[in-house]
Amino acid sequence: MAAPLMEELSEYLGSPEPAVRLILSIFLGYLFAVVYRKFLFHQSPLVIHLYHTFSGLALAAFNFAGSQVYHSALCIVIQFLLLRLMGRTVTAVLSSFLFQMSYLLIGYYYTATEEYDIKWTMPHCVLTLKLIGLSFDYYDGGKEPSQLSAEQKNGALPEVPSLLEVCGFSYFYGGFLVGPQFTLRHYQKLVSRQLSDIPGELPNSVLPAMKRLSLGLVCLAIFTIGGPHYPDTYYLTDEFEAQPFWYRCVYIILWAKVYLYKYVSCWLISEGVCILVGLGYNGTNEKGEPQWDACANIKMWMFETTPLFTGTISSFNINTNAWVARHIFKRLKFLGNKLVSQLATLVFLAIWHGLHSGYLLCFSMEFIIVNVEKQAMVLVKDSPVLTKLANSPLYPLIYVVQQFIHWLFMGYPLVPFGLFTYDKWLKVYSSVYFCGHIFFFAAYLILPYLRKALVPRKGDVKRE
Questions:
Q1: Which of 264, 276, 345, 436 is the Cys-Cys partner for 209 at CB 3.0 to 4.6 Å?
Q2: What is the CA radius of gyration of the chain?
Q3: Mind listing the pLDDT tens digit for each residue in 11-57?
Q4: Contact by Cβ (8 Å): 244, 160
Q5: What is the mean pLDDT of residues 162-186?
Q6: What percent of the chain shows pLDDT beyond 90?
Q7: Helices 395-419 and 245-277: angle between axes, nearest 10 degrees
């Protein structure tokens, strides 16, 4: 009964059936959240864990019927056994990391196609980070507090969780399909009714949740309307290749904006679910006002207005970036080189996304762009001429030019991210003459000479 109905609905909406099932599942999170608030908020942890487990399994079965459902269950059980049997050891952390990542990558290998497919590996990549993070947090729980950073203290687990607790954490309907990432310690606070602006009582989170839902619906509408006008398939047509160079560049900008709303809309709608149950509670600000951004995966104002690549990265996929910073980048401190740690982190992110060459190219371009931009920002700060220009009445014009460059070269690395395979993204890059590579490699070579010309030497400054 459900299958024909979903076929008819997807045909009516003009969207693939897996995409329709996914977005319906994200909206179903609000129904589960209302049931939780109405009937289960004051229930025992056992009941709440069971509810979260079976509601998440129901979403998994609705989206990935048959044998695909067992992948998540198997990885959760094995992760629990690793915690129980291997304890708080480096061996346990490494075993968890190797097993979970290997399972995910094998899944990619056997299921990947040349298109963006919604299958069991999509939520499983979210689950992989959760379970690896769980092993790190359990390991940190055995250290002295003085050895831990503030972030590690917030996530550290003082004792091994139960299997049911790990299941509830993993299958929680507000984060199982598309994120966000959160720690088991944060989930435990939800179950113990600590995540509320009124301790022990239902949080006053309906209005904040509806705000994020509304914003998510706006972004979903933009993607739904704009997507057919800026499809990634157009890149591969003779018509695109016949367009003038400026048109191809503008198309990359507009396509990138619309393309990212696919992710932004899902994150905002899911965040609303997390806020509604209380998981989004993040304490109070200096005015004593409750904050509901603990599960925010996007800072919309910053995302839309920043002219900086680092600003867009900081505002996008926030919780995943925070997870990678906490568990990968900062734990590579022993390498003694920040650039090497950054590069290793980006390689991890690329592999975590999938096995296509487009992911590696995207994140390698991010590495180059971010480091060139940092050098340029230091140059502007240290140069009196450039600082004066940046603070002059000409800044609005500079901002417009900066935004054009920013979004052109934000879209540029997204092309291989969206097209996946070598033959596709190479065709697009050839059509725009590898302008992104040329621009940033040229900037990398020129910036030291500009610094010599525009930044006064220390001796000159002292004489002045």
A1: 276
A2: 24
A3: 777 788 889 999 999 999 999 999 999 999 999 999 999 999 999 99
A4: no
A5: 96
A6: 88
A7: 80
Task: Take residue 250 and report the two structure tokens written for it.
Answer: 């503008």
Read off the pLDDT of residues 384-438 as tens digits, 9 standing for 90 and up: 999 999 899 999 999 999 999 999 999 999 999 999 999 999 999 999 999 999 9
- 0.70 exceeded by pTM: yes
Give the Cα separation of 288 and 284 in Å (integer): 5
Query: What pLDDT digit, counting tens, does each position of 300-340 carry?
Result: 999 999 999 999 999 999 999 999 999 999 999 999 999 99
Q: Which two tokens stand for residue 256?
A: 């990138």
What are the catalytic residues?
Answer: 317, 353
